[in-house]
Amino acid sequence: MPPISKAELLKPRIEHGTVAIEGLGEFTIRPLTRAEAFDVQTMRDESVLEAENLLISLGLIDPQMSPNDVADWAAVAPAGHLAAVSMAIGRISGMMPDSGKESYKSPRAESGS
C-alpha cells in the first residue's frame, strides 16, 4: 500500500448512517469530527445533559436540530429515544468504549500474518 498524501489525508471523509427508532422513524446521522468530539467531551465535565444535547445536535443530519431543539425533544420523549440516537452517533464517531475494537484492525490481522 502506498503512503498517503497530505491532500488525501486532509480530504473530508464523513459518511452518513441511519438509526431507526421503532414507532418514530429513521434518523440520518454522521460521525463527529475530532474537534467536535473534544468539544462534547469538554462540555461533559460541566454538564452531561448539555453535552448529550450538543452531541445529538452535531451528529443529527435529518432532522437537523439545535441543542435547544434537542432539549425540547428530551422534555417530551422517552429517554430511550435520545439514548438510541446519541449511542449511534457515539458509536460511528469512535467515542464508545468498544468503538476501537470494531473500527480499527491491525494490518497483521487483516493480512492474516
Q: Indicate the radius of gyration in whole angstroms.
A: 16 Å
Q: Beta-strand percentage?
A: 5-15%
Number of strands: 3
* Fraction of residues in helix: 40-55%
Residue runs with pLDDT of under 50 for 5 or more positions: 101-113
Q: Tell me the distance between the termini.
A: 16 Å
Mean pLDDT: 86
Oligomer: single chain
* 3D shape: globular
**What string gives the helices and strands in order?**
HEEHHEHHHH
Report the major sheet.
3 strands, antiparallel
Q: Tally the helices: what do you get? A: 7
Q: Strand order of the main beta sheet, please?
A: 1-2-3
Output the structural class.
mainly alpha
Summarize the helices and strands and which ones pair or pack:
Layout: H1 6-9, E1 17-21, E2 25-29, H2 34-44, H3 48-59, E3 60-62, H4 67-76, H5 79-92, H6 99-103, H7 107-111
Helix pairs in contact: 2-3, 3-4, 3-5
Short overview:
With 113 residues, this protein is mainly alpha-helical.
